Amino acid sequence: MPTTLSLPLRRLWTLDKFAYSLRVFLAFSGALLLSWAVGDVALVIPLFLGIIASALSETDDSWQGRLQALLVTLACFAVASISVQWLYPWPWLFAAGLGVATFVLIMLGAIGQRYATIASGTLILSIYSMINIEHHGGVPDDGPWRQPLLLLAGAAWYGLISVIWCALFSRQPVKQSMARVYKALGEYLMLKSALFEPLRDVDIEARRLALARQNGQVVEALNQAKEMIFRRLEGQRGDRKLNRYLRIYFIAQDIHERASSTHYPYAALTEAFFHHDVLFRCQRLLDQQGLACRRLAKALLLNRPFDHHQSEQALEDLRASIDNLRGQRRTEWRELLFPLDALADNLATLESQLASAHNPDVDEARRDDSLFDRTPSSLGDAWERIRLNLTLGSPTFRHALRLPLALLAGYALLQWLDPEQGFWILLTTLFVCRPNFATTRRFLTQRIVGTVLGLVAGWMSITLFPQPLVQSLIAVIAGVAFFANREKHYVIATAAITLLVLCSFNQVGDGFDLIWPRLFDTLLGALIAGLAVFFILPDWQGRRLNREAAKVLTNSRGYLDEIIHQYEAGKQDDLAYRLARRNAHNADAALSTVLTNMLHEPGHYRKAEADDGLRFLVLSHTLLSHLSALGAHRHRLADDEDDASLVPLAREIGALLGQIAEALEARRPLRALEAEVNALLERLEAPAAENIEAGVPYRPIQSQLRLITQQLAPLAEAANRLVMVGGGSSPEALSAAH
Question: What is the chain's alpha carbon radius of gyration, rounded to the nearest angstrom?
């Protein structure tokens, strides 16, 4: 194949949604060809609906796992479709079955993401079954089995394509997930470089907030990549290529730890070296390493060489700049040159990891390459996860109560108004009603706008192209567009699925008669979803902000404990250490998500908590940065009595973090910690001054513990503000605590 043609095709193959869209296209095309072959155009609608439900239920697995998930999905689809068919003539029984089934399916999602995906697809297929029955004016004369079987046939057809695809191209999703990781890391490094920009009066807090939010994107990408690799490694530990991607994943984790490290307050460095180029060199190096990560992502996708020469040159320039400063022998810089050296060493190690990521086969063998399995190991484990969520404090339980009530309200309205094509009300409610207000509001607006655009496009399509063949082709293209855009461009996705509906239903009836009912039902369904999430057990994020903040500090303490254990036992990237590090970053990302959702809630419910929460997020992410630096420089302390003497101080720091976390969890005022913090700082700073005078080399553990300790008082103050504005304590009580 000519190079001019092969390169665009290779780039197209690397796109995340290309394979997904191609599978959907094959499924829709097959269903369309079947309906033409048998001369029954009415087959298109149930087959298309089954394909859509099956594609929405698709889980990421090896082909064996996908086959197992498909069998479970088809079993759930069969029960749901047949139940709808049987209960349809009896509204009271139908309503009871709808409410109970919705609650049970939502609670099954508490077991894990795979079960949540299948449960969501089952609910969607249930409503598709209602729409299909309504379209035929009730249970058709040809028996109650025909329409459920057609829906299942469409679902099975897409599932078969999916399983075969997984068997043929099992590693392509892993490659794409790793590319997303390095792309997110690249963005993180480029944002981190802005902190070194040698400017005065810069809003550092805003930059740190942007960095904390991007850290959430990195954590999400790492978690998705880990799950993809883990599912494919089951039973395939000897697969050389999969093991290669596993090593690339571990390298990404190490890069993330070093990228998130902070060795010294940047404001102090800016003040000291404002008229020198060292901070510019740091900024340029981080920026070039971020660009190198993005180039590495492309290289992984395209199997092409990876060039990071510019970041290597930037590292050499930074080393030369530090040597120049050291050569000036200025006393006031003496203490600051040590953290600059540590920063350069950290970035040099990051540079070597970038080089090894493209050729991980030469990377040193790891003692522990196991991954933590978060899936339930037994039925008892699965039930325990559900049981722990059977409380009003669980967002899953709240949603499991809210969504059935919303659907029942839509069904009652449907029975009362008896609108034409009324089950679109339920479908809109199902798609729009989300576990929290912010997400529901976003989907509500986008659903309405997309529906209007889709109806206009549909009206134009069936007017300008009355030929059934052309309308069928438009329906197929619209279906592909829906799946290609449903995650990132929901307005386009909604417009596409609306266009598919109009063109498909116009094959067996009058599509023009569907335009106004579809718009009317969408508005009603969106209104019900909005009212439900606002009035029925609303999950205002501020109510659990203190718990999320407490989790951040609890997991940061666990990370600190593991780091200190590594200093005692010697550096090793074992599962316990990697899990503690990942839990700390997951908690940081979860807090960022909660605060982002809070900013989209009504002001009356948001109050001042969002601003105080953002302040806490900046402080907690700074704490995590210092912990990451401490972890990046970990080494065995057995041969260093001075460093070993710092271990008890680290334990005390962990205990103070635990106290702040406990106060946040209980939503009670925290007693003053200034005395303990000042005592710790005195014990940490006195030896540091002695070491500098004696010319003792820089001790990263001492410096980082001092920086961590300096975060405790601001964290305690921020925690008390969260407790106070959260309604747990009065200002008088807080004053008394101090």
Answer: 29
Q: Give the global pTM.
A: 0.88
Cα 438 to Cα 60, 240, 350, 415, 726: the distances in Å are: 27, 44, 38, 30, 19
Distance CA 233, CA 227 (A): 10
- Burial string for 479-512 (b: 16+ CB within 10 Å, else e) reads bbbbbbbbeeebbbbbbbbbbbbbbbbbbbeebe
CATH number of 541-687+698-726: 1.20.58
Phi/psi at 636 (nearest 5 deg)? -75, 135
Mention the CATH class of domain 171-358. Answer: mainly alpha
Q: Is residue 70 exposed (0-12), middle (13-18) or buried (19+ Cβ within 10 Å)?
A: buried
H-helix segments, 237-333: 240-259, 266-272, 278-302, 309-327
DSSP 139: S
CATH 1.20.58 domain range(s) in the chain: 171-358, 541-687+698-726
Provide block-wise average pLDDT over 10 residues at a time, the chain (738 residues): 57 81 94 89 89 92 87 94 89 93 94 90 93 71 75 95 91 90 95 85 83 93 89 68 86 91 77 82 93 92 84 91 85 79 88 82 55 75 90 92 96 82 89 93 94 95 89 93 92 95 83 86 95 91 89 95 86 85 94 90 69 90 92 68 77 93 90 85 69 56 89 92 63 38
Identity at 710, one-letter amino acid code: Q
